[in-house]
Amino acid sequence: MVMLIEWVWTLAFLAVAGHCVARLSVVRDGGAARTHWVADAVMAAGMAAMVSPVGGPIPLAGWETAFVVALGWSLVAACRSEPLLWLRQAVAAAAMLYMLVTTGTHHGQVMSGPPVVSVLLAAYFLAVAGWSMLPVVGLRAAVAGGATGVLGPRVVSGCEVVMAAGMAVMLLH
Q: Which of 124, 133, 75 is CA-nearest to residue 95?
């Protein structure tokens, strides 16, 4: 049963990564939006590798490097524009680093780190998932212009729900 759940999360994260790459084809407002979608795609791929029952093809040091760069990039971007978007990205990159560093592997078992940190981060990501769910169910306007249908705002919000809920589950796994 555990392996089935791991496969479901793996496929969900890979779908989100694919969606992020597809969004690159409709982004019209330049570098910041493209950078955001690339960062989300890398995050989703990293999460897929972390939960995958077969592990990931990239060594631990490769993922650590990717998330250190993502963290630094997000912090710099937050100083330039859209601070809430980029700070959320920075927290996600820091959480991925936390999971990688505290486990010494790219496959689960995060609670080996300080439990209070895992619980606080998980609570944050559950709040993000809840907020991101509102546009999916029509209780808040979705923001992700430039596309409709599968690449539209409600699906973008759904991807945010998957990523945030998945991060919370991974932190408490």
A: 124
Q: What's the confidence (pLDDT) of residue 149?
A: 80
State how far the Cα of 172 lies from the Cα of 123, in Å rounded to an integer.
10
Q: Which helix (H) or strand (E) holds 147?
A: none
Q: What is the mean pLDDT of residues 128-132?
A: 95
Cα 37 to the chain's mean position, in Å?
Answer: 11
Q: Check: CB of residue 122 under 8 Å from CB of residue 106.
A: no
* Nearest-10 Cα torsion for 134, 93, 20, 44: -90
Please check whether residue 75 is in contact with residue 86, taking contact to mean a CB–CB distance below 8 angstroms.
yes
pTM over 0.90: no
CA–CA separation, 170 vs 14, rounded Å? 15
Closest CA to 47 of 89, 105, 107: 107
Give, in order, the Cα–Cα distances in Å from 38 to each of 4, 11, 26, 27.
28, 18, 13, 11
Close Cβ partners of 145 (under 8 Å, ≥ 6 residues apart): 153
The two three-digit tokens of residue 51, written as one number:
């939960």
Report whether 136 contacts 154 (CB < 8 A).
yes
- The structure tokens listed for 67 are 């998330």
